[in-house]
Amino acid sequence: MKNADGLGGAVSDNVDYCPWVTWPKPWIAYPQAITEPATDVGTTTVRLWGVVEDDGGEACQYRFRYKKEGDRYYHLYWWGSVTTGQSFNWNLSDLSPGCRYYFSAQVRNTASASLWGNEESFITLPEAGIAVLLLAPNGSEEIVAGSTYEIIWETTGTMESVLIEYSTNNGTGWTTIDTIGNTGSYEWEVPNANSQECLVRVSCPGRPSVNDTSDDVFTIFQCSGIIPGDSNGDCYVNFLDFAATAECWLNCGNPFDPDCQPL
Predict the structure, then answer these.
(1) How far are the Cα atoms of 48, 65, 110, 116 from residue 55, in angstroms, in the given order?
(2) Which CATH fold topology does 131-222 show?
(3) If pLDDT is split at 50, 70 and 90, which confidence band does 17 have?
(4) Nearest residue to 213 via CA among 227, 205, 222, 201
(5) Domain coordinates of the chain in residue numbers?
(6) How far apart are the C-alpha atoms of 230 and 242, rounded to whole Å?
(7) The domain 15-123 belongs to what CATH superfamily?
């Protein structure tokens, strides 16, 4: 088969040297690819893997697509020549530390490109020195639903913001509280729940491996009613209420009473 210009030549007359740019041969079927787990995962580098499940009858080129969690896919260019059963790989660099990435493999022959293979994922290693430590709640607390509770944490390294989440089933599922600047504390409006299996988790957004969770479960409960004498609203009448009352002893708000202690 010659080029349309009719000039011919060593390359244009022998187009089978590059099978993925010729007219499809009638006996060639669509190829299939399988995505395999990544290896050599570092802070900013990784090696992606795939295998040709079926080349459709002739050698295939391969490529990958990948994305950071929450971002769009980037497609790598076609490369190589592989056949049924052969593995292929690609080295990536300049990734973000401590982030989850997703990727898929694809192959093509003269019939068509395959569908994208199954999706695999990996988490790059966090940068050394970046960490978060949750201080409160850290286990065994009993917190009234609907109250305000101060979540407290510390971080090392550069972390501009944090993601705060809570669980009421010992970590089986998580609900986002907020994503805020790394201030070290957060006034949490406790949800209306009844559970003895609650946890809080603080993490670096986009870097799920940089996180800390309550060391043990704590309790969120809905108070059964208004209790006279419960001055601090913790659904108990105890020494804490007495101490709060003693601290305010003789305080009043009557501006005409000369014996009144100012508020």
Answers:
(1) 19, 19, 10, 14
(2) Immunoglobulin-like (2.60.40)
(3) very low
(4) 201
(5) 15-123, 131-222
(6) 9
(7) Immunoglobulins (2.60.40.10)
pLDDT digits (tens, 9 = 90+) for 215-262: 999 999 887 756 665 565 666 655 564 566 666 666 666 666 677 666
Please state, in angstroms and rounded to a whole number, the distance separating the CA atoms of residues 180 and 161: 6
Buried b (16+ CB within 10 A) or exposed e, 77-109: eeeeebbeebebbbebeebebbbbbbbbbbbbb
Q: Look at 174 and 23; give whichever has higher pLDDT.
A: 174
Cα separation of 22 and 97, whole Å? 42
Angle at 213 (CA atoms; ends 189, 96), nearest 5 degrees: 105
Give the dihedral sign, CA 170/175/181/186. negative
Structure tokens at 89: 């790989």
- Tokens coding 43: 């802070």
Range 21-28 average pLDDT: 64
Q: Residue 61's closest CA among 79, 49, 74? A: 79
Distance CA 187, CA 191 (A): 12
Which DSSP symbol is given to 261? B
Question: Containing H/E element for 246?
Answer: helix 239-247
Tens of pLDDT, residues 136-167? 999 999 998 888 999 999 998 888 899 999 99
Mean pLDDT of 1-17: 40
